[in-house]
Structures are given as C-alpha cells and as structure tokens.
Specification:
This protein has helices at residues 2-10, 15-26, 40-49, 128-131, 140-154, 173-184, 204-213, 228-234, 237-240, 243-257, 275-285, 310-322, 343-352, and strands at residues 55-62, 69-75, 98-106, 109-113, 117-119, 134-137, 160-163, 196-200, 218-222, 261-267, 290-296, 327-329. The chain is of the alpha/beta class and 353 residues long. Bound molecules: S-adenosyl-L-homocysteine.
Length: 353
C-alpha cells in the first residue's frame, strides 16, 4: 500500500487514492474501469500511466474425483480492451513464460500451491520444472495474481498457500517475502502466517534469513536422501549446501523458532526407499522437532524415475512413527492430472511443438 500511495502522489493525486487502488487490486479487479469509486478522469489517467500486472489462467485441468485443479498461468500485461481468456482454451504464443499453480480442496479450507519462478535453476533430476531450465523470477504481483486468478476460475476462496510450485523460493527471496507480506497485510487478504508454507531445496542462507524474517511461516525442506553422495546425485544443490550443514541449519531453525520443520521426502522406487534408507532417516532425523512428509514420486516420463508404491510408502511411515518420528504419506490429489511441479507446462510446450 505504501508503494501505491507514493505512486498516487507521483501522478499528482492524494495518497488515499493509493489505498483505494490497493483495495481494488486485492479484490482481483482486472481493469481500471471497475474501480468505481475513482473519478472517470482519474481512471483515464491511470490507463495512461499504469498497467494492472499479475497473471491469467490460460489452461486448467480438473480432477473430477477430488476437485483438484491444475492451472497454467501466463504473465498478465492486460490492457483495458482485453478480457480474461477462458481457462482451458487458449494456447500461449510464449510457451516458455508460463507457470503453474495447483488448487486443492481440504476439509479445513482450500489451498493453492504457488510458483515462485518460471522454470528453476536447481536441476533436481526427478523434477519436471528443472527440465526447461530457468527462465525468470516471478514478482510479488504475479504470485498474488495466481491466488486471485485461481479464486476466479474455481469460484472458491483460497485460505492457505504453499510455495511448492515451480521454482526455488529462496532463489527469489525478495519477491517471495513481499508476496507473503501482501497476503498477511491486514488491509489485504489478512492471511495468517501459519496458513503459509515455503518449501526449499535447501539454500542455507535463505533458511537463515527466513527464520529471522518469518518465524511464524511454515518451513519445509526437500530432503529426499540422507547421504551426501545419494543426495548430490539427484539434487545438485547438495554439492553447495551438503546434508550435514543443511541438517544443522534445520536444527538451528527449530531451536530459534520452536516450530516443527517439515522434511519432504519424495519416494523414488529403488533409489531412496530401501530399508537402509529408512534406517538412515531414523538415525539422522530422530530427536528433531520435525515431521516427515513422504510423497510417492509423481512420474515424469522424461526423468526415468518412478514412484514407490503407496503400500511401501505407508510401511515406511509406520516404521518412522514407531521410531518416534512423525510421518505422513501425502494424500494423493490430482493423480488423474499432471500434478507434479512443471508437468502441465511441459505438456503445453510439447503440444505447441
Ligand atoms: N524448489 C522448492 C519448491 C518447489 S518443489 C523445493 O525444492 O522444495 C516442491 C516439492 O515437490 C519439492 O519437495 C520437490 O522435490 C517435489 N517434487 C518435484 N518433482 C516431483 C515429482 N515428480 N514428484 C513428487 N515430488 C516432486
């Protein structure tokens, strides 16, 4: 809001106009003409000096069983004449500059998985987002836009967000931080910090900054393997921030914030789901204030990896639980659709050729 107040002054208006614009933007309006408490003259002035950024849904896939919607977004530089494209129809002429969100229905409210970048630099071997390389960072408006646009196309309210879409949030820290603050702003969406989760592949400086700046926002770390050799093989980021240091940073995080950390563990058949792997998990994570979220890998054909069976996943969860480590198998939502990070974009690109 402060930025919009300054902008209002810059164009020769009173600061409170910035507040009015802020309120409209938070309601998801797509054009200045919808800002009906602004004079016609001011709306014309805005058209000449500003654009409503954000993004729009260009494709949507719904899982009929559980209502999960995978949405493909395109950055929005809407002009007054353009109307929102019908979700699920239009193809983008800039296929690379698209990003995804997943809308999930839970008993305690709807959650949106948000992307923080177009593509990703981390290069995890099992992940579809890594395949196209890195394109660019998303700005805070484009992240908030995913929430507003998801609400529009699903005609539902989003009450929680997880930053587990495309991209590495701590590789785009400033914009992610601004997005979280926009969500939390009392005059914005007023979302509780506790309804937000950020997931990182393990960028230690980001974790340290995050525990200072956002001690109440949930933190998830993608662990996936518990030896340096094995982890480096599937997650190149491990070469820069090796396991021991990462687990140390995690312990520091829980000491400082007194908050339980979530470790994500994508179960890859024959790669990290053996009894030996489970023993290592118990040895290295035992006693930590943590929760292990086991995610049978969502198969991405191009990567050559497949997921562990749900039966085996539940067996592993039970063994962890018996060893005193809280563990759950992630509920499988959207298995009918391309539910994994970066998969919808991949398909769209393949279709366009
Ligand atoms: N870069 C961040 C956030 C985005 S990925 C991170 O790495 O945490 C969100 C989660 O999905 C990560 O745990 C990631 O490893 C996992 N993931 C990526 N591809 C997957 C797939 N095909 N199946 C299951 N989980 C996957």
């Amino acid at each position: 809001m402060e930025e919009l107040k300054l902008f209002a002054v810059e164009i020769g208006e009173k600061p409170f106009r910035g507040k009015q614009i802020y309120n409209w933007l938070n309601q998801g309006v797509r054009s200045f003409d919808e800002m009906t408490d602004l004079s016609k003259a001011l709306r014309e002035k805005l058209k000449g000096s500003a654009q409503i950024g954000g993004c729009r849904a260009i494709r949507m896939q719904e899982d009929k069983n559980d209502g999960t919607c995978k949405i493909l977004f395109e950055a929005d530089t809407a002009t007054e004449d353009e109307t929102a494209t019908e979700a699920g129809t239009a193809a983008s002429d800039k296929p690379a500059d698209t990003f995804e969100g997943v809308f999930m229905r839970y008993s305690y409210g709807n959650s949106l998985c948000v992307s923080s970048q177009v593509g990703c630099k981390m290069g995890c071997k099992f992940c579809a987002s890594a395949l196209g390389g890195f394109v660019r960072d998303l700005d805070a408006g484009e992240m908030l836009g995913q929430v507003l646009e998801a609400e529009r196309v699903t005609d539902s309210t989003v009450s929680r967000i997880v930053i587990m879409g495309m991209g590495e949030p701590f590789d785009n820290y400033e914009n992610v931080a601004k997005f979280l603050r926009l969500l939390h702003a009392e005059e914005g969406r007023n979302m509780s910090w506790r309804n937000m989760t950020v997931s990182t592949s393990g960028l230690i400086p980001g974790i340290r900054r995050f525990e200072e700046d956002f001690p109440q926002v949930n933190l998830a770390i993608s662990l996936h393997r518990l030896t340096d050799e094995g982890r480096s093989k599937i997650m190149p980021v491990n070469q820069k921030y090796p396991l021991e240091q990462l687990l140390e940073a995690a312990r520091e995080y829980t000491d400082k914030t007194h908050r339980r950390i979530t470790f994500e563990y994508a179960l890859i058949e024959g790669e990290n789901d053996t009894d030996r792997d489970v023993e290592l998990m118990i040895k290295r994570l035992g006693g930590m204030l943590c929760h292990v979220n086991l995610i049978p890998l969502n198969k991405v054909d191009e990567t050559g990896f497949s997921g562990t069976s749900r039966k085996r996943a539940h067996e592993i969860a039970e063994r962890l639980e018996n060893a005193g480590i809280p563990a759950t198998v992630r509920r499988q939502l959207g298995s009918e659709i391309d539910g994994a990070c970066g998969q919808l974009r991949l398909r769209q690109q393949a279709e366009i050729g």
